[in-house]
Amino acid sequence: MRKPLIAGNWKMNKTPREAAELVQALKDKLTEIDGVDIVLAPSFTALETVYNLIKGSKLGLGAQDVHWEEKGAYTGEVSFSMIKETGCQYVIIGHSERRQYFGETNETVRRKVKAALKFDLTPIVCVGERLEEREKGKTFQVVENHIKEGLATLSGEAVLKIVIAYEPVWAIGTGRTATPQQANEVHTFIRQLLSDIYNRDVASQTRILYGGSVKPDNISALMAEQEIDGALVGGASLEAQSFSEIVQRAKIKGVN
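Above: the chain sequence. Below: its structure as tokens.
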């Protein structure tokens, strides 16, 4: 059974002080949670603050992005060794906002994924189509390209260390959410694709999250779908009450 995972992507929100306040509130609400992995992904400036508050707890820490090179003249970038030293266990790679605004490509995703594995970090690899691509019937084609090119040259053993997040771009921060059936259809496609590329064991063991306006009132329906293993949560992760409710409702699948 794949253990559910709920990751909160705080994006460009929360100063270190604000992050500390949110973490304290979350710890009060999530200390007794079992049956689900929980990851917090604050901005780079708050990573160390958050880690110092969650170390020894059941909460995991993730970075929102990283550069594939270990060091060098890359002004403004952050390396794997830097985020590793702050206590990170996870790193989000290929988020649609990185693709849309900052030139992320399948090639840079591949480089980052390989480097993440080298540093023993778990990549949360994002894939998903834009609205115009869905309307043109290209959803599966786009997702297939993201998977095949973003994970190119990786072995099945390496893929087992990766989490995939399907995030339809048209549902991110828009208030629109793919129906549970729409999301599960793409998750099913991704799992079959992994089976075709690698094998059924890799496909059955890889966790695939859904991301796109996930809220307390839709997480139960999403998690009820067979191939959805958790969520990459944006706006709803910025409030302790809404994020804790999402975690509480997601864990049921892992316990049953």
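Strands lie at 5-9, 37-41, 59-63, 90-93, 122-127, 163-166, 208-211, 230-233.
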